[in-house]
Every structure is written in structure tokens, then in C-alpha cells.
Amino acid sequence: MSKGLIAAIVALIVLALVPVGAPSTVVFFTLCLAKSLAVLGILVLIRADQVSFGHAMYFAIGAYTAAYITAEFRNIDIMLVILAAAISSLIAGLLVGLFVTRYRGIFFGMINLAFSMVLYSGLEKAFHITGGSDGLRIRRPTLMGMEFKRAEFDLVIFYVTLAMVALCFWLVWRYLRSPLGQALGALKTNETRLEYLGLSARRVLLTGYVISAVLCGLGGVLLGTVQGLATPEHAFWSRSAELVFIAVLGGPGHVAGALSGTVIFEAVRTFAAAVLDDSWQLILGITLIVIILWAPGGLVELWKRVFLRKGKTGEEVQK
Amino acid sequence: MSTDKGTLLLQAEGLKLRFGGIIAADGINLSLYKGEHLAIIGPNGAGKTTFLNICTGYLKPDAGKVTLNGREITGRPPRSITRMGVARAFQIPQLFTGHTVLENMLLAASVRERHWGLLRNLMRIPERAEMEHLLDMVGCADVRDRLASELPEGKRKLVDIAVALALKPEVLLMDEPTSGVATADKFGVMETLMKALREAGVSSVFVEHDMEMVGLYATRVAVWAQGIIQMTGEPKTVLNDPDVIRNVIGSGEHA
After folding, report:
1. Which pLDDT score is estimated for A57?
2. Are B135 and B244 members of one domain?
3. Where are the domains of chain A?
4. pLDDT of residue A72 exceeding 90
5. pLDDT the model gives residue A297
6. Which chain A residues have a beta carbon less than 8 Å from that of B115?
7. N or C: which end of chain A has fewer CB within 10 A?
8. B243 and B162 together in one domain
9. What is the pLDDT of residue A126?
């Protein structure tokens, strides 16, 4: 068994034991896990050297899908809610993706931002449909016909989220090794050759884009369901930037970066704020500077350097 | 289409293209038959590379058309023409620099075989042995696991051609295949290359400045100057033609 697989299994077991060992942190970890799915989506695009500053829109689409569907169908199964969010973010990702994948670099980032802000304003203004800035309530779904009280549901959604994270991280890990996933990296270094292999660079990017949109949608539906609320804030630009921040913090070179980045980010934010107001921005800002200067591979690289005693891999990651 | 010269593969008819005041092509007629290795020679800036750019769909001609096996390909994008069987190697190698040499090859094979399964492992596609063999054939087996960005120029050139060959094209278009290769290795490299082409049954068009190379490896030569094909024929005839010697070979061309 490879070291990576062992690390993944250990991480999964540790996370699965959270409700037993530290029951008070269950909601915190659920939020982390949900958000890490969205960060994973950002990470996919970074493989192609594209950074989206608007992916929070898919986060919001996931959350609002949950709000609408749980209002329409009372006591709907959570799996169906997740499926509906995946489908709606997939369709949205495809429609927006057809347009934005014509662009690269700064234009790609900004056009995504523009789309997300249009959605944000729409959600805020269309009061009768979206509940305006107060947002919409997401009713508690059921699981296999069972209804849950608040405390029980926290546990249920924790394990559902953990299962989704395990599944999605595995799928994305496989995808990034596949020819189409590897073509994302090829798009980064030589689009001309890609076209001269007979492959549409746009199609390669669109595939990655749709996958990243679905991941953000899944993050949104799970996070929204935990909080019981979908608000326009979910689509706000600072949310998008936060996802990119976490992806760089965790390290875009490996899927594990998405999870470790999110846990560290949320932990600093939650616990530093308790000690000193607003100190979390300072701490995270300095941490990011240190990472970019000395460990461009992110937390994943630090982990490798310390525990696996591997050489410096940051340069490879940057290439 | 068959004539006494064999099967017609690639044909350009009446190609015209001008960039501002510069006329790159002013009615180019040129054909490539199956099994041929056609060299295009001519002064710098005559439009030889432009021809390759038109044939692969990178540039659209102002007039004229290009056909492949009788089907018109003018106006199609490079990826579509590539899929139809015209591969290209570049004067400046175009590789995926963040990938290893073998991964570059496997990506090409994946496109050819349409391995689009999202859960498929690039390193385990069935064409891997074929790609390793191809690298061996062009003398690049030793750099298989190196990053493309780390290769010396000569090897990069060969890998670029190997990537094009990995697509199993009918026609390979090459732009100065041995420029950038150390002078001492040039002929060895070209020998290896032509052997690989013959083995794979690939016809080729190559733009070349080295007349010795043309004499040794071209089956036919076309002289491109002032936007038209001045002459075509066997290397022996063309390279000894007084006009060609005066206007092309002796025009300050460096070998």
C-alpha cells in the first residue's frame, strides 16, 4: 500500500472518530468538509493555471437548490437534495463554462467574478423568489425515510458530508491522473500542441470547469443544509476569493491540499477570533506569505517535507 | 486519386496569402504523393513555414484550397486537420514542459485512441508499450522519464517529432527537423528520423535549409521563391540547376 493511501485512510478514520472524541466540534468539521469540496473544485482549475474568482456562485446555486427543493418536497431524502444540487450546478457550470472557457488568465478570473456578482445581485433583488438578503430557509431533509431532531441531524449530515468528501476526493484524484485530467496541465504549458494533437483545449478546460462547478455546488448544498440557510452571501466575491486563498494555502499540487488547507483555515479563523478580535486575518495573511515564499507547494508540501522526508517539491508544483 | 506518381495525398491548389504588403504565396500549386518525402527549399522569409501553417489550418489562405485524400481541409481548425491525418512538428519544439517525455507521448496516444474515461490512468493505457517503442525508434528511450523542459534542444526536437508520429498520421509536416541539433549529430538524427518515417509508412513534407540534407533524404524537392513554386523535381536535378544555385542556394543561405 502506498504512503498516500495509508495517509488517506488514517485521515478518514480520524475524521470518522470526531463525533466520539470531540463531539463539540462536529458542526465545525462538517463545515470544513463541505467547504473543502468547493476548494477541491478550485484546485482542479488551478491545474490548468486558471483561477476563478467567481466560484462561490456554484456554492450559492447548491445552497438555493436545497432551499427550493426542501420547501417543495417536505421530508425529501438528503441524497436527493444532494443529487439535485449536483445537477443544477452541473447545468449552470456547463452554461457559464461554454462562455468563460474562451478566456484565460486574468480575463477568465474576472469574467467568473462578473457572473457571480450578477447572481449575487439577482439573489438580493428578486425578493419574492429568493427571499432577498435574508435568503431562504433550508428545511431539514430526511435520510432513508427517517426524520431527525437537530442534534441527531448534525451527526447524520456530518457522516453524509464525510462520505461525499471521501468519494469526491477519490474521484478527483483519479480524474487528475486520467488523460483528460493530465491534459489540464498540458493546457497550462502548451495549448498549441494540445490543438495539434487533435484535442480542443476549450473542451479540456470545459470538462475541468464543469467538474469544479459541481464540486462547489456539492459544497454549497452540504454547508447550506448544516446551517439551514441559503443567503446571497454564499455567492459574494469574498467567498470566491476565500476558496482560492484556501487552495493556495493547502497546496494546489495534491487533492489533500484542499482538505488540510480548509481545516487549518477554519481552525485559525474560529479559534483565533475567540482569543483576539480580527486577529485571524493577520495570522492567515502572514501564513500565506510564508507559504508562498518558502513552500509554494502549500501545506501538502510542508507535510511531505516533515513526515515523508521528501525533497523540495515546490519547484515541480510550480511548473 | 491515382496517377503515374502514385496516390495523391495532400494537394495545394492556387494558394494565395499576403500579410500587408508582403506576398507569402501568390498561387502555390504543390502535391504530395504517398511515400514521398518532399523538401521545400527557398530563401528565408519566402513563405515556406506559411505553407505549413495553411496546410494545418493555422492560417487561412486568401484564395486557393488544400485537399487531403481529395477532401478539402482549408478553413478547418488545426485539431480537425490533425485528426484527419496531418501531424506537425515545429521548428521550435512544442511540448508539454511540465510533463515527462513519456507522458507527452501517452497524451498523444490518448487523443488518437480517444481515451476519455475520467477514471482511466494515463500511465496505464494499452498504447504505452507502443509509445516506448516509438521513443526507442527515434533514439529517445534514455530521456523517457525526464521532464520535457529539461531536455537538450536536439532531444526536444526528436521528441516533438515522436509526439507527432504517435498520432499515426498519414502526412507529417516538419519545419527544419534538424535545426538546433548539434552539427555533428545532424545526419545521425535525420537518418534515425527518416528510418522511423519509412517504418511507420508516413509521407512527409519538410522545410529545409541544409542542401546536403535535402540531397540525401528528400525524394522530391520544391523551390519556393517570390510566392510561387519555381521548380520541382528530383534532388539531383533541382540542386544542380544554375538558377536555383544562384537564387536559392547561393543567396547567403547558411547550411
Report:
1. 95
2. no
3. 24-235
4. no
5. 81
6. 178-179
7. N
8. no
9. 84
Query: How far apart, in whole angstroms, are the C-alpha atoms of residue B167 and residue B236?
Result: 32
Mean pLDDT, all residues of chain A:
88
Contact A185 B82 (CB under 8 A): no
Q: What is the dihedral of CA B56, B57, B62, B65, to 10 degrees?
A: 60
Residue B10: give its domain's CATH number: 3.40.50.300
- How many domains is chain B built from? 2
Per the rule left: phi > 0, alpha: psi between -120 and 50, beta: everything else, A38 is: alpha
Kindly state whether residues B143 and B176 are assigned to the same domain: no
Cβ distance B204 to B87 under 8 Å? no
A–B CB contacts, 8 A cutoff, strictly below? 91
The set of cell numbers assigned to B47 is 513563405
pLDDT at site B255: 40
One domain, residues B52 and B99: no
d(CA B234, CA A306): 66
Same domain, B80 and B173: yes
B23 in a structural domain: yes
State which of B151, B167, B183 marks the end of a domain. B167
In a domain, B145, yes or no: yes
Q: Is the pLDDT of residue A314 over 50?
A: no
Distance of residue B18 Cα from the nearest chain A Cα, in angstroms: 23
Same domain, B136 and B187: no
Domain span including residue B152: 95-167
In a domain, B90, yes or no: no
- Give residue ranges of B with CB < 8 Å to any A CB: 56, 77-80, 82-83, 87-88, 94-99, 103, 106-108, 110-112, 115-123, 125, 147, 149, 163-164, 167
In the prediction, which pLDDT does B41 show? 92
Average of per-residue pLDDT across A129-133:
82
Q: Residue B22 has what pLDDT?
A: 84
- What's the rounded mean pLDDT across residues A181-200? 93
- The span from the CA of B218 to the CA of B206, in Å, is 9
Task: Convert the pLDDT of each residue in A192-249 to its tens digit.
Answer: 999 999 999 999 999 999 999 999 999 999 999 999 899 998 988 989 999 999 998 8
Global pTM reads 0.89
Residues B79, B99 within the same domain: no
Number of H helices and E strands in chain A, helices first, is 16, 2
DSSP secondary structure of A245-277? HHHHHH-TTSTHHHHHHHHHHHHHHHHHHHHST
SS3 B224: strand
Beta B171-175 vs B203-207: how paired, if at all?
A: parallel
Looking at the structure, tell me whether residues B107 and B159 fall in a common domain.
yes
